[in-house]
Design a protein that fits this description.
Number of helices: 16
Strand order of the largest sheet: 2-1-3-4
Helix content: over 70%
Shape: elongated
């Protein structure tokens, strides 16, 4: 008997996970087993990879055009076009074809055995004839060559040279900060990351709100509340969906950067890695704050039909964040990058554009964390009071005044 008592005393108590961790794990597990979520994620990833692959293919692709002529003068111009095209546009290649007369040249374009016909009328005006709309690249190369050819003839007729005639007319373009290609990449990434923040927040936030409403509508939440503190339930749902959103977005960003590294922008990607890490940090805190609001929207609704109404304020807030990050400029953008929740997108965009220092990001992230903490406290009170009410849709003010 004494040995049994000793054994019971030395036996260590079984460790159990916190309730919120169990709820979060359930949220993640259910989502990862959800067929529509898996298919949707894979399709989005496939589209992302496809777009990057298409861009890489377009960047490396050379456009070839067969240009036909029907006169010696036009043939001479097209021969020069063949030589000058790579210097004007490295992605354009011209092949010269000849026909005996205008009718044959026109027929060649019409039956698509040639892409274009270059001809000169009696007044000396050059014309580029195509079956449908002329490709911009071909039109630009032909126009540049025609201008150079005509200018050379006019200069010769005036007893001067092209160099003397065009002296001082060239415009040099110089960018003080970085280069043009890097600026294009920054603009693209800024918009893409802002859109990804908006889209991920809408998708995962609405999923969270629907989950809360469905449990309330089916009255399952009453059984859950008997065994689980509502604070722990809210924390688990918010943390689980935040982990899913951040994880999915991290995969998309990593795949996107890997794909861009295979394009002409590849040399700039290593220098932007730190800024992308900042974006993920801001997304984590920003989504955590917004997830509380989505949970409140779900708790205020008694049916799925009510959810669109209760979720409208959150949706409008997200739209304002997206539009603000896209259209604010100058001083307004700088101020907005410190104002949460706009700072969740505006500050990473400024970092990517090279307009913000690391300490500014730290300050903005701290302010965003403060907002997240305040929203957690407010949302927790409204969530606990609204979740157990089934008498119809509630407003935030009504839920705030309810007794527990």
């Amino acid at each position: 008997m004494s040995g049994e008592t000793t054994n019971q005393q030395t036996q260590k108590p079984e460790r159990t996970s916190p309730i919120w961790a169990v709820v979060a794990g359930r949220e993640i597990g259910v989502k990862l087993r959800d067929r529509s979520f898996i298919i949707g994620s894979l399709m989005t990833l496939a589209i992302l990879v496809g777009l990057i692959g298409l861009q890489a293919w377009l960047d490396s692709r050379t456009s070839s055009y067969d240009v036909v002529t029907s006169s010696p003068q036009a043939a001479a111009l097209v021969e020069r076009l063949v030589e000058d095209a790579p210097g004007i546009d490295e992605d354009v290649e011209i092949t010269a074809l000849t026909e005996d007369d205008d009718a044959a040249a026109r027929a060649a374009v019409d039956d698509e055995s040639a892409d274009a016909w270059v001809t000169q009328d009696a007044e000396g005006i050059w014309t580029l004839v195509t079956r449908e709309s002329a490709p911009d690249a071909l039109r630009s190369v032909v126009e540049t060559t025609v201008q150079a050819e005509v200018l050379a003839r006019n200069a010769d007729a005036a007893g001067t040279s092209v160099d003397e005639l065009t002296a001082g007319t060239e415009l040099a373009v110089r960018q003080l900060d970085g280069d043009e290609q890097l600026s294009e990449l920054r603009d693209f990434l800024g918009f893409a990351l802002a859109f990804m923040f908006y889209l991920a927040s809408i998708i995962f936030g609405m999923t969270l709100a629907q989950s809360v409403t469905e449990e309330k509508q089916s009255r399952i939440v009453e059984m859950i509340a008997a065994a689980v503190p509502l604070r722990q339930l809210l924390a688990g749902k918010v943390i689980g969906n935040t982990a899913l959103a951040v994880g999915q977005l991290t995969v998309y960003v990593a795949v996107g950067m890997l794909g861009l590294s295979l394009t002409d922008y590849g040399s700039f990607i290593p220098g932007l890695t730190g800024d992308l890490v900042w974006f993920l940090a801001f997304f984590l805190v920003g989504f955590l704050a917004l997830a509380c609001l989505w949970a409140v929207a779900g708790a205020l609704a008694s049916r799925n039909e009510d959810l669109q109404s209760t979720a409208t304020p959150v949706t409008m807030l997200l739209l304002a964040v997206f539009l603000g990050s896209a259209f604010l400029e100058g001083r307004a953008e700088t101020i907005g990058s410190f104002v949460p929740p706009l700072s969740a997108v505006a500050m990473p965009v400024r970092l990517i554009n090279g307009e913000a220092q690391w300490w500014e990001a730290v300050v903005a992230l701290g302010l965003l964390l403060a907002l997240a903490a305040a929203l957690v406290l407010v949302a927790e009170r409204i969530y606990r009071r609204a979740l157990m009410q089934s008498g119809g849709q509630l407003s935030m003010r009504q839920a705030w005044r309810l007794e527990e």
